Automatic annotation (TrEMBL), chain A:
InterPro entries (alphabetical): GDPGP, GDPGP1_C, GDPGP1_N
Domain GDPGP1-like C-terminal as annotated: residue spans: 226-374
Family: Belongs to the GDPGP1 family.
Subcellular location: Cytoplasm
Protein's name in the database: GDP-L-galactose phosphorylase
An example Gene Ontology CC term for this record: cytoplasm
GO molecular function, one term: nucleotide binding
Species lineage: Eukaryota, Viridiplantae, Streptophyta, Embryophyta, Tracheophyta
TrEMBL record, chain B:
GO-annotated cellular components: nucleus
Keywords of this entry: Chromophore, Flavoprotein, FMN, Photoreceptor protein, Receptor, Sensory transduction
Source taxonomy: Eukaryota, Viridiplantae, Streptophyta, Embryophyta, Tracheophyta
Protein name: PAC
One term of GO molecular function: photoreceptor activity
Organism annotation: Musa troglodytarum
Tagged with keyword Protein biosynthesis: no
GO biological process, one term: response to blue light
Amino acid sequence: MSVYQPTEGQHGEEKSGRNCVLQGIGLPLYYFSKAEKDSGCSSEKIEPQSTFLDRLLKEWDDRKVRGLFHHDVNAYETKILSGDYGFILQLIEGRDLKKRPTEFRIDRVLQPFDGKKFNFTKIAQAEMLFRFEESENDESGFFENTPIAASESPNVSPIGYGHVLLIPRILDCLPQRLDEQSLLLALYVAREAETPYFRVAYNSLGAFATINHLHFQVFYLVGVFPVEKAPTQRIMTLASGVEIFQLSHYPVRGLVFGGGSNLEDLSIAVSIACIFLQDNDIPYNVIISDAGKQIFLLLQCYAEKRTRGEVNQEFLEMQINPAAWELGGYMVVKRRKDYQETSEDTLWRFLDEEASVSAERFKEINDCILSTLSDKIVERNMKREDDHKC
Amino acid sequence: MVALTIPSIGRRAENTSPPSAAAEVMAGCSLRLIEQSLTARYSDWIAEALDEIQGCFLITDPGIAGHPIVFASHGFLAMSGYSREEVLGRNGRMFQGPATNRRSVLEIREAIREERTLQISLLNYRKDGTPHWILFHLFPVFGVDDGSVAHFVAVQVPIPRRSRSLSEARCGGARGRLFGACRNEVRSDCDLGCNLASDLFVDVDNRGLEAEESREASEQEKERASDAANSILSVLTQYSKLTGRVVSSKRCRVAGISPLSSSLILSLGRIKQSFVLTDPQLPDMPIVYASDEFLSLTGYSRQEILGHNYEFLNGPDTEVEVLHQIRQSIQAECACTVRLLNYRKEGSSFWNLLHVSPVRNASGKVAFYVNVQIDENAKSEGLGLSPHMRQLGVVGAVKVAVRSLSLCAGPSRPSS
């Protein structure tokens, strides 16, 4: 996993002579076991005990002490707003966020990787935390100092405390486009932390992904995200046992995937839905929660609305870009006035009226997702049967 | 005389049952710890006293890693079909299953983390795999000496199926309508005790039960839960006086300081070096945590120093400039390393390599200062690490531990 601190300057900047600095350098490697975790005595951990998470947080802290971050990420004020959902608000004051130059068109969810634009192969070794790979046996643990040779190694980098990027297959230079294997990897990472407070998110292009190079965001926060409190209604159960729910009484329209007996089935179901969305230019955000047992798929149309000038001035001034964490109920504001005055009601309106797709639009999309899922899962089962017959 | 099937909780060893797979699991969670969890605080007679209480309940200890069950009542074992060995040392999640509502699980988890009372309907599973609805009433029991949670008590009252009209309102699907029988007439039999519960309320088709999204408890059930809770609390309080480690249902502030959460204390307890945490938000920046190694280094007991300012280590020959330097760093919210002369309780002095560092909580505020001491003359067990590296290691571990505190713990409170 690599530590990477994005700053305004780095976007669009050419780092000459630093192409592919990653080849041949040594990093610690964490190897994880695919086997389902035993949910016996140790399942209800109250504090981070997982070797993996412990090391991640320690490495993060080490980079901070070494001054690799451009601002003191520890000093941001954060609070929980009163109200039923407990929206979480963070203030990053004084950081003059110029609008990021749009490196890519916002109307296309799938765009080809462009090596000339900023991507993660251009980051320095010091910014990387460690690698994350599947082990050959059922054990898990750390190897120190292994080289990144293969393109299979994912990397992670930090943005805020316990807030890092997970970059699968960094050397393959894949664009921001979700597939079953990458999503499965993200689920393994979530599970490995062994705590419900370690979440992994994915933002598609058009839904505020910042860089068109395949990556996930990882965020450790001890607390409950508002979206996790929202009631749900079960709408479908797949043959694999994976259950699909619809969010109700929540300002963002979306689905929740859960259940099933293993991560692979869950990953298959969610990726079928996401691939459908990205093939049809529908922006979306994913939050993996509850140590990989629960996946939120949220739909928004904020970027489009903003381009068309349809967003209320009140919200434009708050400068909140609704990516996964924001849709989940964790918002970052830039002005102290917003930090002091924003209420649950304001954020609810922002999400409900500006960011989320409408209920009608959601119904349209949802019907397509469900029928695609039925078709694809039948296809897969038939293929499996054919394979058996051979 | 009924032979007790429990493995020597507060009893002598001759009652232990033969080893089994379950016992191995328990051994993994340290059988001794489980036993002592109750007897150390409530005396050897506590198990007997708790066995006198009617009702289904569990007692858990958040101070032991994994938050294990340390007591299970007769009624609970009868209701769930498990034996005591199968339950002790395990976490309460073992009774949850596929149809247990995830939101309820989340609420329980958060109530434990925030150390507060919760009453909620919950679908649990018996040993034979059959699900059943219970009213789950959870409450913390605080130690008066340090204000932290000594135990959690989970009272469980079965919620029987209601008459058709009420259950229809809850059930999503048609399956709920298959069971028309009104069970009201059997509810009075509840008073016979939980031992009968598993016979009376087994559903003909368990999947119907799982299709129910929720089941409300009646006032009668809520009252039963509160009554049981009060009886248990009363017994625990009474017996805690025998050991002097008194408990109460309310958290008390000790020496003016807020107690640290059990999870934080657990994490800090793993750091085997001399250090203290002080709280800059309170007047005079008192010590709120001291490691065992600090106590052995200085000769003081925990009670003597909690709530006091760190300066009691200073003495006549401690340089004033160094103290000033420390104060300045604290004001600037910076870390510093100094070397100063400190004094043990019995009067002898030692050169202390002291490192002081701010530790922020999740909301960004400085929640604590950590002071790490190294006695210059002590032989180094530091694995070849320099003293400074060892100190930074402690600071790192403390930071990780403090980061496990939620946003609503500590000085930052929800805005109103």
